[in-house]
Amino acid sequence: MKELLKELREKSLAAIAGAETSEALEALRIQYLGKKGELTAVLKQMGRLSAEERPIMGQLANEVRAAVEQTLEAQKKLLTDKALEMKLAAETLDVTVPGVEPRLGRQHPMYIVLDEIKSIFIGMGFDVLDGSEVETSDYNFTKLNTDEGHPAREWSDTFYFTPDSSILLRTQTSPMQIHAMETRSLPIRIIAPGRVYRKDEVDATHSPMFHQIEGMAIDKGITMGDLKGTLNEVVKQLFGPSTVTRFRPHHFPFTEPSCEMDVQCHKCGGVGCPTCKGEGWIEILGAGMVHPKVLEGCGIDSNVYSGWAFGFGLERLALRRFNISDLRLIFENDVRFLEQF
Ligand code: PHE
Question: Which of 27, 176, 248, 285 could tie 192 with a disulfide, CB 3.0–4.6 Å?
Fold first, then answer.
């Protein structure tokens, strides 16, 4: 038996020292020390030994077991160390290799202008609101004093979702006037930029999707003079102090009186050129005093409160601000164009 144990010891230690993977190591552990392992089998024969021999063999067997266990442990550590070493070698980083320069994007010209406009209005005490592009015809039209049968509600102009014309893509940001009046306490000073949709063919000045910025101020004693003063100040901050504007009478169902505001053409200085289509002026917004019916519909006493509202076309402002000749450039996202800003 002594021989058997000695042989087992040599054989197993050699095998363990030669194991190259942790799986092989585990297999060897089972082979020698497992319930049905070789050392266990030898131990099972101890019963057959004489009383004098038993403790001696028992001690020897324990020594063999201890040696096997130790060698297993040592080999295991060796293997993990080696694995770590190989991993580190494989992951070496050469910090002297030139890096790949990331291509940074930049802000879209229209959003540059939008940010400028926002900060001008925030400086004047206005809040910036966000609105939903899907609206009900109630908010897009009816509450804005635009009743059934009004030409603006035509299927040919508006993207409707439902056959009963009740849900649509907003055709203007003006529904935000109603939302603001219904949810805010007076006085109100807000702007609300966002996308609007109309069934227009794409050309140099039209797109079925474009951006507006709605603005509204409601308080006691607000007049058309406040509207003109505010808008003139905004345009001067945006385009420069020498910017010339004019207000023309116009009609909107939800403002009375209504007007449009033009800025003098920056290309020709008002003489007339292709950019302004010979007019000398470029229209940039519609505006007016909020109609008493609209105020009353939102529960505001029109005898006590008055207010104005306007709607800027954002793309037009961007075109003018950066001297861009074609609206399509704003939406095409050609990097050669966008890189210039
Ligand atoms: N919503 C109008 C349009 O899209 C613009 C406007 C806004 C006019 C607010 C008056 C007051 O043309």
Answer: 176
Mean pLDDT of 204-218: 93
Contact 131, 182 (CB under 8 A): no
Query: Strand, coil or helix: what is 19?
Result: coil
CB distance 95 to 39 below 8 Å: no
Residue 297 near ligand 1, beta carbon < 6 Å: no
Is the CB–ligand 1 distance for residue 288 below 6 Å? yes
- Greater pLDDT, 266 or 230: 230
Write out pLDDT tens, residues 152-169: 898 889 999 999 999 999
The verdict on the CB of residue 174 being under 6 Å from ligand 1 is yes
Nearest CA to ligand 1 atom 9: 310
**Tens of pLDDT, residues 31-50:** 888 888 888 888 788 888 88
Q: What angle is formed at CA 94 by the lines to CA 89 and CA 96, rounded to 5 degrees?
A: 160
The pTM of this model reads 0.71
DSSP string, 297-334: HTT--TTT-EEEEEEEEHHHHHHHHHT---THHHHH--
Give the Cα separation of 65 and 62 in Å (integer).
5
Using CA atoms, how far apart are residues 148 and 141, in angstroms rounded to an integer?
A: 8
For residue 57, the surrounding DSSP H or E stretch is helix 53-90
Neighbours of 126 (CB within 10 A): 19
